[in-house]
Amino acid sequence: KISYTTNYVAIASNGTGLFSTYVGAGAGGNNAANYSVFVGRNAGANNTEPNTVVGANAMQYGSAGHSNVVMGYAAAEPLNDASADNNTMIGTKAGEKYAPSAASSTYAVNTVVIGSSARLHDSLGQNNSIVVGGGAHGAGSNTAVIGNTLVRRLYANRSGSGAVYAGQLYISQSANSASVFTGDITGSITSTASFG
Q: pTM value?
């Protein structure tokens, strides 16, 4: 099925939003949102708002979230809250559920998730969260996570000579026990002993 008017293009889809593009069986479902792009089987299948969704089953359960950019097979698949707006999720299963039976990541606002199977924190609501890296898991609202549990070093440029700015510095061997440093820290440290 190919439908074309001066207002929209639909290939194997029933979408009719003005100035929108639908490509793939079930892409955009019966979406009538304007200025949308849905490419791939069931991409944005239940969505009713303007979004850019590319990939089979990507954001297929999303109903009313808008201004999202989703790319990758099954990316943002569980994102289905009406207020799930302004998110970017890129990668195969980016933004996936943390467990098959869970309803996590249904609500997210202003989040960025990049990487295959990268996902938000295991709670229902996320605001302003950044998660980057294959298999990386978010730490909650207003946090940024780079890398999965196998990442052991973080460099500010390749040689590590770049500057890192932060209000506090936490050094720990576990999430429950950390030394906290505030203010200015100068000089050099060569000891491997505990300090702080």
A: 0.81
